[in-house]
Write a structure and sequence with these properties.
This protein has helices spanning about 1-20, 25-35, 45, 50, 60-65, 115-120, 130-140, 165-180, 185-200, 205-215, 230-235, 240-250, 265-275, 285-290; strands at about 70-75, 80-85, 95-100, 145-150, 155-160, 255-260. It is of the alpha+beta class.
């Protein structure tokens, strides 16, 4: 009798437990429905969209219509004027105007190596029309930016201004490139600046590596020279060397005036014609002569590489 009572009590307890757990049964059923078994995809169909994309035709004419065309005009002295005007209606009303000159370190001899970079430093030290302070004030009042850089292939002078000050930028560039005064005191001061710059660059691993790379890849050729030249050359460059360099390299056929942004090509051509009219049309020294003249007299520096093996 006692055993039957215990069995009945046990069944009642299990029944009560089942009723209490029944309150979460719907959640279990819902969870099972919310997580269906993953669909199996055949291997041959898995990457079909990558193997055989469906060809579609897309019309890019609207986007291509906003790409500016490059217009180029060659003046009577050989100077080229190139421009790309911003066509987008929301494009900023600013422009960048620069002068690119075939006058990099590859056109220098062993004795003149470093002159192009030295000249870049001196070009902003005053002209026949503007002092250093006037140059700086004119750029500042226009809210513009005037700068330059020298590479192995070329020297570049450029200005960034708002649209209404494009004539100011062209006039400034023409003035510094044709009328710069190389005062002896300024030359000597800048010599010290360049020598200190060389010391700083010698601490920059990337710069040193690229110089060694060029010396190795272009050994016994002008491209193997450094842009800054040797310290001995920098100490010996004179005002006459700078003036001779301009007379040799800064000629019409070796220069391009390029502009982009809010520029009108025809108006730019008129400005350049007026500003660079006196630029010589040719030089007695050709580019081939400059490249062939006095290649480096020493081979590339030798580098030793150590190889380690780990076990």
């Amino acid at each position: 009798m006692a055993s039957r009572l215990l069995a009945a009590a046990s069944r009642a307890a299990r029944s009560a437990s089942g009723r209490r757990s029944g309150s979460i049964a719907p959640f279990r059923a819902f969870s099972a429905q919310a997580a269906p078994a993953p669909v199996q995809i055949a291997d041959e169909d898995r990457f079909a969209r990558y193997n055989s994309p469906i060809p579609v035709t897309i019309d890019h004419s609207a986007a291509l219509g906003l790409i500016p065309a490059t217009r180029v005009t060659t003046l009577s002295n050989g100077l080229r004027v190139a421009s790309e005007a911003s066509l987008h209606p929301n494009a900023p009303k600013t422009a960048t105007i620069g002068v690119w000159i075939d006058a990099g370190s590859r056109y220098e001899s062993e004795a003149t190596n470093g002159t192009a970079h030295f000249l870049e430093h001196m070009i902003f030290k005053g002209t026949k029309r503007r002092s250093v302070q006037q140059l700086e004030m004119e750029v500042e009042n226009a809210g513009g930016h005037l700068n330059a850089y020298t590479s192995r292939e070329m020297t570049t002078y450029y200005a960034k201004v708002v649209q209404k000050d494009i004539p100011v930028a062209v006039d400034l560039l023409g003035d510094i490139l044709q009328n710069s005064l190389f005062n002896e005191d300024a030359v000597n001061r800048e010599r010290g600046v360049i020598l200190r710059e060389m010391q700083e660059i010698e601490k920059q691993v990337e710069e040193v590596l690229f110089d060694h790379l060029h010396a190795t890849a272009f050994q016994f050729s002008p491209l193997g020279r450094t842009i800054l030249g040797s310290a001995d050359n920098v100490r010996s460059i004179t005002r006459e060397d700078l003036e001779k360099y301009i007379a040799t390299h800064y000629t019409g056929p070796r220069m391009v005036v390029a502009a982009s942004g809010a520029v009108d090509h025809d108006a730019l051509v008129k400005l350049v014609e007026k500003t660079f009219a006196s630029l010589p049309a040719a030089s007695t020294t050709t580019v081939a002569d400059l490249i062939a003249k006095s290649p480096p007299s020493s081979p590339a520096p030798r580098c030793a590489f150590a190889t380690t093996t780990s076990r």
